[in-house]
Specification:
Elements (H helix, E strand, L loop, with lengths): L18 E3 L2 E2 H10 L6 H5 L20 H10 L24 E2 L14 E2 H10 L8 E4 L12 E4 L9 H15 L1 H14 L1
Antiparallel strand pairs: 1-2, 3-4, 5-6
Length: 196
């Protein structure tokens, strides 16, 4: 006589989902691990709480932060200031990823259907004297997505990985120090003289 195999289910009432661990289904187990109770949902966890960033009074929605600061952290790696940032730069408004977008370029081959084009694409196309090809992308050497100076942009034949080369970041930091800190130039001169 064969034993009939019974599927083990979640131990919570009214939940007949397959068991995963510690008596709970996948959903309730994750809630228990994340919030301390299988009954607490994401919305209940943040209900009534404000963003943990000092000076921000917005409602917390993601990992104890408001949507604005959480998205900044995801995209830039920093939450920035507690205030909303003005989305206007010299070139034009920024898109949700921090790139400058220009309108009114309907005739450009790299623009979208509405005539909008990212400024770095336009600058690189002008630098090359031709539109960008299908798989070509533009990389910001210093990692600042709205810094579209031609010397900060480089053409890649395919998608580039996130981040910047260390050599590019060091060169960018040295340029800032050379431009704004006269003491740095003196220190560097002495250091280079000591090596030689």
């Amino acid at each position: 006589m064969e034993k009939e195999e019974v599927m083990r289910t979640c131990k919570l009432e009214k939940c007949n989902t397959k068991h995963r661990a510690r008596g709970y289904c996948n959903k309730h187990y994750k809630r228990r691990m994340r919030y301390g109770s299988p009954h607490i949902t994401h919305m209940l966890w943040n209900y009534g709480r404000t963003c943990i960033i000092d000076g921000c009074e917005q409602k917390a929605t993601h990992k104890h932060m408001c949507t604005m600061h959480y998205r900044r952290l995801e995209r830039r790696g920093t939450t920035g200031s507690p205030e909303r940032e003005k989305a206007e730069y010299i070139g034009g408004p920024l898109d949700s990823y921090g790139y400058v977008v220009l309108a009114g370029h309907h005739s450009h081959p790299n623009s979208d259907k509405t005539g909008r084009i990212k400024e770095h694409t336009l600058v690189m196309a002008e630098k090359l004297g031709r539109p960008l090809r299908k798989k070509e992308t533009v990389h910001h050497r210093n990692g600042i997505r709205h810094d579209n100076r031609p010397e900060n942009l480089e053409l890649w034949a395919s998608r580039h990985p996130p981040g910047q080369r260390v050599t590019d970041l060091v060169a960018f930091a040295r340029k800032i120090l050379d431009d704004h800190d006269p003491q740095y130039e003196i220190t560097r001169t002495f250091m280079e003289a000591g090596r030689g």
